Amino acid sequence: MKVKTILVSQPAPKTETSPYFDLSDKQKVKIDFRSFIHVEGISVKEIRAQKIDLSSFSAIILTSRNAVDHFFRVAEEMRFKVPDSMKYFCQSEAVAYYLQKYVVYRKRKIYVGNRTFPDLVKLIKKHKTENFLLPSSDKLKPLIPDELDKLGVKWTRLDLYRTVVSDLSDLEDVFYDVLVFFSPSGIESLLHNFPDFKQNDTRIAAFGNSTVKAVTEAGFKCDIMAPAPETPSMTMALEKYIKVVNKK
């Protein structure tokens, strides 16, 4: 079966230089984007119930832009003035760059990882005497607490936002050749919105081991997997697959 249409379970790229647009042009396939999940902030009342004193922390671990947004949202709502001496440990350059929305970058102590959490841990290790706050969603990758516990640093998790399934009812009669997922939550959303979903000829692409596992545990076949040595990105994995099946 040739691939003509793809649905990516993420928001549309904000830049025209996205590799998805290149893929669409080169392989002559239609690519749509739709968030299967979205983030909702946890209320200050619920956060206060976690009984965590923001003033007791000397450093913050930021793993995503959502974590940045919701930390500063909560700080403002709780009238907590983040001290200038606060140290920020950002998982990637993208997160660190986004932090500039809230702080004067050159006047703060900001440490930036290469991209993955284990990379950031190497930086955290050099500051083991700090008291770290980890702003988090209700769904935290087990790798993160495991790595911090192994390191033996003093850290506290604070849930500030939650991942919620999006309403996809308008897609009920729309069919795609490939569905692309990036997290187990995406599969959860698919099943929540379409409990009678049958894969049939639909190909499923999954990024990351936990997503692949969620696909198979749901009883579906995972046709396209990334990252892999030859295809480190999802667009590369999709292109490789399309080149094979569209030749037939």
From TrEMBL:
Transmembrane segments: none annotated. Residues 46-235 form the Tetrapyrrole biosynthesis uroporphyrinogen III synthase domain. This is Uroporphyrinogen-III synthase. The lineage of its organism: Bacteria, Pseudomonadati, Bacteroidota, Flavobacteriia, Flavobacteriales. Pfam families: HEM4. Signal peptide: none annotated. Gene3D superfamilies: 3.40.50.10090. SUPFAM superfamilies: HemD-like (SSF69618).
